[in-house]
Automatic annotation (TrEMBL):
Its cofactor is pyridoxal 5'-phosphate. InterPro entries: Kynureninase, PyrdxlP-dep_Trfase, PyrdxlP-dep_Trfase_major, PyrdxlP-dep_Trfase_small. Catalyzes the cleavage of L-kynurenine (L-Kyn) and L-3-hydroxykynurenine (L-3OHKyn) into anthranilic acid (AA) and 3-hydroxyanthranilic acid (3-OHAA), respectively. This is Kynureninase.
Amino acid sequence: MDESDADRASAERLDRDDPLAWCAERFAVPDEIYLDGNSLGPLSADAERALDDTVDEWRELGIRGWTDADPPWFRYGERLGDRLAPLVGARESEVVVANSTTVNIHTLIGTFLDGLDGSSKILVNELDFPTDHYAIRAQFRQRGLDPDEHLVVVESDDGRTIDEERVVRAMDDHDVGILFMPSVLYRSGQLLDIEYLTRAAHERDVLAGFDLAHSIGVVPHELSNHDVDFAVWCSYKYLNAGPGAIAGLYVNEEHFGATPALAGWWGHEKETQFEMNPQFTPAADTGAYQIGTIPILSAAPLDGALDLIEEVGIDAIREKSLALSSYLVALVDERLDDSFECSVGTPRDPNRRGGHVATEHPEAERIAQALTEDGVVVDFRPPNVVRLCPSPLYTGYADVWDAVERWREILDSGAHERFDADRSGVT
């Protein structure tokens, strides 16, 4: 960044020239500067409208909403899967909306474990979001397998990133059956190369699965073209579908016909679902991985939120996301230099990062609290990371400028020192 560009007036000029600046008007951002969309996206007018419409249908139609609502609730999971398929680069039949992310990990890992002919070891990494490991370990225990023996964990060289070559070597060294990795590391924001890892896995007869929670809606994917076997994700981050919103999953059509490890009536083939047969007949496509009745009030906001994403297009979203995160990295370098003990823990290569930036500082937890009290909502991840997410649909360049300036003012004044460094709770 040129020194002449490091002022608020230049940020305002960037906002005026931003072709997506109008999108912010569709959101009710709860704080002055909201940089926590990688944890929970804010409410959009589109999501609220879809939820209100569904409540009206519930009021007016009652149980007839399953057949007479617009769209009918009965196939809501499949309909939303069709809409999400372009965001992950999949065929419509390969995507469905269902369950929660953790439940989807359980059912997919369990299903593919049961179908393995060879090794039942699963390869993960030490920087994964913990729920991935919890679920995999539980599936091992359910099958009488020792998790400590069957879960192979790739270590990080720097505590921030995962070397993909180490992942490949681990597949060679440990006779792995399934690779399960995040698309984006939740703490540092490193974007892994899904195409490369999938190809390397398949060359070794290893199944390749991914957790897209920190990339869907901000990073384009090509799951079908890359021949990924399965994937899971949530919809409350960059998809802005609301707290605890319904999750989604992808299964490559090559694997259609398997009986899910967690079978439930909503995954039954639709044509005979209400015949109430005692024998489970799974749907012929990814719809089989639905378990319980779809929670319509948790799914409707996603239906509305997708309107804006489709209108803008995932490529334009990614372009602005990279521009914002590059601007943020440059500002941290320029305004929070070594004298402030700040450093960027996210890969500097734009093609190797997702949508958020991890800024490191020894007092990160206190700084995160001070920023939030000052109207800049961020989150803290141990041991020393403040995550800032300039989500492209509602964040502007001036927002990023102001956030960095307030951080600088907090360190200048020592305002963070009055906060408890050992606070527990939701961040």
